[in-house]
Amino acid sequence: MIASIPEGRYAVATSGAKTYAYGCMTRVGITPPKVTITADDKRLKAGKPAPDPFLLAAECLGYNASDCVVFEDSPSGIRAGVASGATVIAVCTSHERSKIENCGAHYIVDDMSKRGQ
């Protein structure tokens, strides 16, 4: 999916530290995007569940958060995405559906493995 998005049109906003986030992305073959907001980013006033990471990522990309889509797998991240004003797609990969279905996501999917026809 990431390969289908033009460079400069997506970001990563994570609760992980920079070293951890970059290491994880690299290990799975993802080149970290230019806009990668991590928990230790000095520009953040608050982390998730505050909307700040998503608001900062959107700003760095030159968009309003309301024009963005957030894919999230954690309750705090889902709440942060919703609070930012973005459209939120909750992904049931690290938490059971019952743990995330009442967090306000606009959509819930089991995983991100299916491709459109």
UniProtKB/TrEMBL annotation:
Pfam families: Hydrolase
Parts forming coiled coils: none
One of the record's GO molecular function terms: sugar-phosphatase activity
InterPro entries in the cross-refs: HAD-like_sf (IPR036412), HAD-like_SPP (IPR051806), HAD-SF_hydro_IA (IPR006439), HAD_sf (IPR023214)
PANTHER family: FRUCTOSE-1-PHOSPHATE PHOSPHATASE, PHOSPHATASE
Record-given protein name: Uncharacterized protein
UniProt source species: Piloderma croceum (strain F 1598)
